[in-house]
Amino acid sequence: MLATFIQRFNNRLNIWVYTAPAQDEVSQLLSKKIRILCWIMTCPAKLNKAAVHVRNTWGKRCTKILYMSSENTTFPTIAVTDHVEGYVYLWHKSRGAHQYIYDHYVDDFDWFLKADDDTYVVMENLRMLAAQYDPNEPFHLGRRLKYQETNRSFMSGGAGYVLSRGALMILVEKAFHVPDKCPPANDTTGEEDVKLARCLWAFGVQPIDALIDGRESFHCFAPPIVLQPDSFPDKHWYARHSYHPIKRGPECCSDYSISFHYVEGDWMYMLEYMIYQMRPFGVGYHGCPDNITSIFSTVTPLT
Fold first, then answer.
1. Are 43 and 50 in contact, with CB atoms under 8 Å apart?
2. Tell me: the pLDDT tens digits for 236-273?
3. Distance CA 276, CA 259 (A)
4. Cβ–Cβ under 8 Å, residues 257 and 247
5. What's the rounded Cα separation, in Å, for the pair 125 and 259?
């Protein structure tokens, strides 16, 4: 058992409380057990402007990371589309990326994260979330948004979305072969993240909320935007299309937030420092999420 693990019985809550070093050990074990392949949607023009900052910061914490583009380069990037770059061709690139990952890595990893080259991801928190699910079952995790005026929903591509191994297998083995249910690669209408959701809906893979402690963990904007108390008036598309009513100010975001979008390169390094190095002396607490017991069981037995 963990040498730093402390059990405290609380008659009212009956929960486990862990010291900070014990959390570190659980996180390290999750890193070994929860195997996540990250793939980054990028392009030749943004390799040294955006993708390089992902590589230098949070990308190092993926089990494996791939950079998907329209050209093979020594960055390295993998060409998964023969189209010119452009927003209307993102679905072509996304299909190519998912097919490539399925062909080469489906059996080697449990979860598959898609992120943009201006998305920042806290991998430890993503593993904490993923530990609650069986990767062999079909799961689609991320920031849930409403699809138009229907009861359908999809996961924001910018905030990053995650497919379990089971979902990736359904997507490639089934959905990609039914063009009337899953748009073909040459379809240039609509958004990539909505098209992906349509392919998954058709075969019973529904979006799963990624709320942690009742608050969002995947974010479509950078911290300076989502944390402002007056951000997103009710008529803003973000407020209108958020699956759950948005919360403004610090309550917007889970303490275990996973991702932020539209993060410029300098902010990548700022977040890296603030999250992993800076500590306020004498301030803070070493609590755990309410579901820590289920997370802990994922990495037991511990020696």
1. no
2. 888 888 999 888 888 999 999 999 999 999 999 999 99
3. 15
4. no
5. 9
